[in-house]
Structure prediction request, 187 residues.
Amino acid sequence: MLLTMQIHHDKHHGAYVENLNKALADADPMIQQTSLDHLLTTLDELPEKIRTAVRNNGGGHYNHSLFWPMLRKNQGGTPSGDVAKAIDDSFGSYSTFQQQFSDAATKVFGSGWTWLVADGSKLKIVSTPNQDIPISNCIAPEVPMLGIDVWEHSYYLKYQNRRPEYVTAFWNLINWDFVNERYARLR
Ligand code: MN
Prediction:
């Protein structure tokens, strides 16, 4: 998995950053100084000329920046702390959550992501196409806690077309401490 992750990080994530910077290079200084979260949650206000580039490459940068700290080698196991309780409260049990999340990730058509998001005190599973981010507006009632990249570039080198095997391996890579930190910051 290491080489797969290395190429994913250096080449794919790197390209999103490079292309976002290119898209913003000639933009209004006001836009250049706006935070990425804000740009991505107010895409309609951007000039049409850069809107798609910011959506795709800014979204790619945003999503991957979240993704890497969610992972840690040889972690996995079951979550602890408040997140464990919130998962039980929202899904009934950890194994039900795992099953629903894996199912959603396996069923994403084409490229995209599956997320565990906090919607108030309730956790839920959502999928986003392409590099769309799991936050719909500035007030951001939904906050991503955990996500899995199911673009082919994230698993093809090691698993070829076998996305379900990659999704299974993902459960052993989750940094639950980070997920707990994000959850704690919401409360
Ligand atoms: Mn990716």
User: Anything to note?
Assistant: The mean pLDDT is 91. The chain has two domains: 2-70, 81-186.
